[in-house]
Amino acid sequence: MKLLDGKLVSQALKDKLKVQTAVRAAQGKKTPHLAAILIGNNGASETYVGSKVKSCEEVGFKSTLIRLEETISEDDLLFKLNELNEDDDVDGILVQLPLPKHIGEQKIIETILPSKDVDGFHSESVGRMVQGLPAFYSATPYGILLLLEHYQIETKGKHAVVIGRSNIVGRPISIMLSKNEYPGNCTVTVCHSHTPNLKEICLQADIIIAALGRLEFLRADMVKEGAVIVDVGITRVADSSKKSGFAIKGDVAFDEVSTKCSYITPVPGGVGPMTIAALMMNTFKACAAKDN
Amino acid sequence: MKLLDGKLVSQALKDKLKVQTAVRAAQGKKTPHLAAILIGNNGASETYVGSKVKSCEEVGFKSTLIRLEETISEDDLLFKLNELNEDDDVDGILVQLPLPKHIGEQKIIETILPSKDVDGFHSESVGRMVQGLPAFYSATPYGILLLLEHYQIETKGKHAVVIGRSNIVGRPISIMLSKNEYPGNCTVTVCHSHTPNLKEICLQADIIIAALGRLEFLRADMVKEGAVIVDVGITRVADSSKKSGFAIKGDVAFDEVSTKCSYITPVPGGVGPMTIAALMMNTFKACAAKDN
């Protein structure tokens, strides 16, 4: 068994982006600029946005963090977004989710210009991805592709089973993996809460993407010898041995599955860091797309 | 074995739309209006557009057929489309494909306002469908759903195997069938030219959507007893016994598969007529959406 080490690959990608950004600067080209909007004081959101801003610094991007009050009106937020849309220096915009209940999430996402939609959540981004047009792939599934690519995992003709059909992970990764490109060209099966014979289907899988959000759901008896396992789950579990008081666990029972599979992502340190690397890649692309 | 009779169901849906359209008229509401653009003199395109215009007449919709020369420039076509976008009386716009080679198909499709995109080919329509937002489902996959719905085919928890991953049929129907709605909630496997064990996978299917465009590809030995078979293929085969000199055949070897399955679409008379019914449904919806 070999680890699909998201921390390591994420760092390698960021190192590469740092060089590419320096090359751009040397050529007198624009520095990529990510604007992030953070609303209220959600602890997890603070952490996520903090990592994104820190990653921008690491790779030499410009970043702008806009903190807004929990009580901001939808109109004021839309106004702010339109300012960022019109600001030529801003290449990528992200609004950290979730939003306060009085703000329509979909409306906010759809307001971001597709050309600055580095999170890939706009319906036009999703549609373009599905249709095979140039598009921002949303960060988590894109991060998974980058991880498979780094380890040169063979995907063509392989059977990938995706557990979960969320808009954020399961659905897009199932589409990406069945596209005619690399990583891709998998036969892909999408499973979900109404799949009666999940174990039987998982046992056929060469690649399993576990993205259902249920603690240690995937057990060793559901996995074929030599399969590739990608764990997208993140569940906090109380753990008094940790300083924080909790440990992060995934959708895969790592200890038992890891003895059977060929590759597996750890949690934490697998898909999580890749999401941020993918966001940096998208921001770089958004900037570079303006060169011509 | 029972036929999934697209001709019959299409007629039933059109009869219902005719009543609904008459009810709208009686209430003083707007009559649905479809504008179709036909470029050049392609025989098949003439036939398709002709059927669409005829269907509009049948259900009491207004239709406008705009014939343009093969030599029209892209700019002139874009200008025409923008006129239709701005014309409040036009509810739905379709541009019959394929287009002459000097015109960018994607650019044309993306110019149609998403709110008038009754063919459902705009990337925003596709993205909204994927994300579960209100959207125009593109006509062929939507027609398949309407057909399954009419015959009250159970889909929840069933394993649907989709052969083909085209933007027009395979990809969207695979997504629709795995959504959390009816018809849907299937476990869905997408197969394509790189799937090594297609027969084995098809033998697991409760529902097979054959949409690869290869004459009589699906044989009886690939089908589980009692499966539901939807044939999206259309191939012209020379047939001197026909007045036209050709017969239309599908992707399914009908004679042998029909002895094994529970339901099957004939070709012709299966998915084909449903595509037009679906287009009429979308046009009606586009019009009704303006009521408020």
Summarize the helices and strands and which ones pair or pack.
The structure is a homodimer of 292-residue chains.
Chain A: E1 2-3, H1 6-26, E2 33-39, H2 43-59, E3 62-68, H3 74-86, E4 92-95, H4 105-111, H5 123-131, H6 139-150, E5 159-163, H7 170-178, E6 187-191, H8 198-202, E7 207-210, E8 228-231, E9 235-238, E10 246-249, H9 254-257, E11 263-264, H10 271-288
Parallel strand pairs in A: 1-11, 2-3, 2-4, 5-6, 5-7, 7-8, 8-11
Antiparallel strand pairs in A: 9-10
Keywords:
six-stranded parallel sheet; 292 residues; Rossmann fold; 39% helix; 11 strands; homodimer; alpha/beta; three-stranded parallel sheet
Give a brief outline of the structure.
Chain A has 292 residues and is of the alpha/beta class. Helix content of chain A is 39%, strand content 16%.
Can you offer a commentary on this structure?
The structure is a homodimer of 292-residue chains. Chain A is an alpha/beta fold and 292 residues long. Chain A has two domains: 27-113, Rossmann fold; 139-272, Rossmann fold (3-Layer(aba) Sandwich). The mean pLDDT of chain A is 97. In chain A, helix 1 runs parallel beside helix 10. The N and C termini of chain A lie far apart (45 Å). Chain A has ten helices and eleven strands. The radius of gyration of chain A is 19 Å and the shape is globular. The A-B interface holds A 106, 122-128, 130-133, 156-157, 159, 165, 167, 171, 174-175, 178-180, 185, 187-192, 194-197, 201 and B 106, 122-128, 130-133, 156-157, 159, 165, 167, 171, 174-175, 178-180, 185, 187-192, 194-197, 201.
